[in-house]
């Protein structure tokens, strides 16, 4: 086994040589209190940084076993450790010392959400941090002394202050662990309580700006107050402020309208709910906004590709004898894209839909009485959402939470109406029903196609190709909403529940993984997603990267939900599918 002293000598030997001499550093080195693994060495200072792992035995790290007791606690504690490492990188590492990425030390740290990540492994035997380091050079000449500073001064300081529990803020790590476990405990209670979502009393929902997910300062925000008739009490696994329960607003399953004037907080509430499928860091303000884990945000998406989706429940008898049962297009309209988005979400198991009229196609959502009188149904292929929303709940147990500011026609199909006034919610269900009875909408109920089931589809493996040029696999996340997959670009700008670029990266590699491992021309999209979920549960994210060799770490993946995985698959423009035959 090589030692830290061996690494020091190697660095001295290659000082001033060409950059490729850094390749000699690859290997494992024993320091006094940790192991360093240099897994991958970058080819030049402008390339992706080198990959290293630091492993500390639990005999030395001494992370308390109670923090590892459940998967949820371990997730929260691990997320806290990643953030502490990130803080100490900023504290101890110099930002720049040469050309390109020279001197860079990073770890894949999250935003406001707590997600399973490959950046850190935490178990009863050891804790392992996966980082990237830009090995320093001037031009392409090795700067070994600066590299020695990184490996023997900065890195030990970072690890010493981040992975040894005696040096940590124990309350900080414990709080992350307990909040995360509480979140998933509350999420499990939603179904048994008949709820689609829960918003804790005094939650801070507004964000500091349109481009930031950090909370608006408490002194500027209106704390959320649950209407008395929707107030519920849920159990906590870990007591909070001395209480083993939490109170807040329970949004029942069924059809819920969120109404109110412009700028009064309707979309703010819906945005909090769409991100409430994820645990949040303590202090976020939305850490106890908890949504059905199968909830999917639905919107119109002009221009997206659709491949053989049976959209007849919403759109049928298309002009030109276009087949709505196997609807395909390279350039969907607002209404056809929204219909496809709904049916694709239901296909993989969504039980709650989140819809904002501002991002919906108007002709998909409603046809009022005057338009019905002018344009007869025989010339209108669209069955509006208003005429299917209750059927979706009664036949398929799919709830809908809908922000609506422009059409009172939805009053007649709603189970619950929440009115937002200056960011405060009020129950207006009874008033809305009285208005619906008093002011007759006079519109005709439009629904002709009998909707018995959601048509499942089977992706064809030959349609997936991640190669580009001489590279067998070329996959890259270009920000949160774009994946380069081989020669194709997958546009995810309207997949609003992707929240982290590392999720997007994992989506790209998971698509390739699925196509190579399980995609056989027989399994449906839903079956493939279920296999992937089970695989992640048992193996984590490490095996997604085909470039990975031996112990080389894939430290920049965060786990996406299966709904965003399926959304990316459906937006891959080379996708070919066949429909599963009904039994």
UniProtKB/TrEMBL annotation:
Q: Which residues form the ATPase of the ABC class N-terminal domain?
A: 5-164
Domain (MRB1590-like C-terminal): residue spans on this chain: 474-578
On the tree of life, the source organism's domain of life is Bacteria
Question: Which stretches make up the ATPase of the ABC class C-terminal domain?
Answer: 173-448
Which Pfam family, an example, fits this chain?
A: ABC_N
PANTHER family documented for this protein: ATPASE
Q: What is this protein called?
A: ABC transporter, ATPase
